Amino acid sequence: MSRRRFTFIGLTDSPVPPLEEEARASIASHSVFAGGERHRQIVDGLLPRPHRWINIAPPLGAVRTSLEEVCEPVLVFASGDPFFYGFGATLQKWFPDSRLRSFPAPHSLQLLARRCMIPYQRMRHVSLTGRAWQELDEALIRGDELVGVLTDQRKTPAAIARRLLDYGYGNYAMRIGVALGGERESVVECTLREASERDFAMPNCLILLSERPSSRWFGIPDELFDGLPGRPNMITKMPFRMAAIAALELGRARSFWDVGFCTGSVAIEARLQFPRLAVTAFEKRPECDTILEANSRRFGAAGIATVMGDFLRQDHAACCAGDGQLDAAFIGGHGDRLEPVFTAIAAHLSPGGRIVMNAVRSSSRDAFAATAAKLGFCLGDPLELSLGSHNPIAVMKAVKPPL
Q1: What is the pTM of this model?
Q2: Given 105, 123, 156, which residue is the final one in a domain?
Q3: Total domain count, the chain
Q4: What residues contact residue 400 under an 8 Å CB cut-off, 6+ apart?
């Protein structure tokens, strides 16, 4: 069977696309085309008659089926560069053995940077088009100075501005480009506050420019956290917190659970030090939900997933990373049910994954060691720490053996 052939032509919003002769010749030689409705409106006058058009719109499963049914070459119209968060990557996944050819146009963030005369060689690119906040949160926590953002109908410039303000990233200014390259093109320079109160026509994209460095925390003082009323000691103290995070080896983890988060100090510290890490925090006390939210906003730790209720009653598989793996977990509270909590975590932990707990009582220390041995985990040497008049702490670590 011959390999499928796809040709990509990138478009801006210009009603008269500035296509090179080779691209125009390619259009004339095809009879099957694909693209969004907006692309069809732009190129309709260039298409040969008769032709077939496959509309690229959700659900994409139907688009794939239509493409699979076609035996002849297909020309695909895309926005900007088809391989910049574009349909080109999708087609490569669907048809990895296909033959590809591309005539890209400048993508929208390139156009916006050029309109604003912003040197963009160091710009961090983020797509929120049909995606979660993770990429943007990562860029903010890392302190990137120049961030280009692709938006959608839900994650609009106003929604993005509000998120930055909510989590303390008011150090950015915003440039918004609307319908770049088209007749309705406009570029707006504004503050986050101004952007949060405005509606912008679609399609749009934006660039965030840092006007001053954001605060970077490493070892947050305990007294800066909101805590349980009347329970000031219900927090993992900063030295013990940082020791536990070191034991968890989060630099080589993709997903992390904080079980029994209380104030959220461990989850927040982990999120800030490892922005690419997927952090999920569990807690049974309902009042801790608002405490974690307040602390996350105070320290700029956007993107922590919270799961409220009895840990042992949760759908743990749904709380793992996208690949179904869990790489590290901290047991901050277990309600005298250490063995079942440890066992539930172990069931989803990837080979080489780490479970860490700060043990105050010798009974907790013994139970941790016994459960680790029962499940075949490798038990590390406890790290003994003491702080002022507080009880000594043993940082316990167990590692799941490789397959």
Answers
A1: 0.89
A2: 105
A3: 3
A4: 346, 349, 350, 351, 352, 353, 354, 355, 377
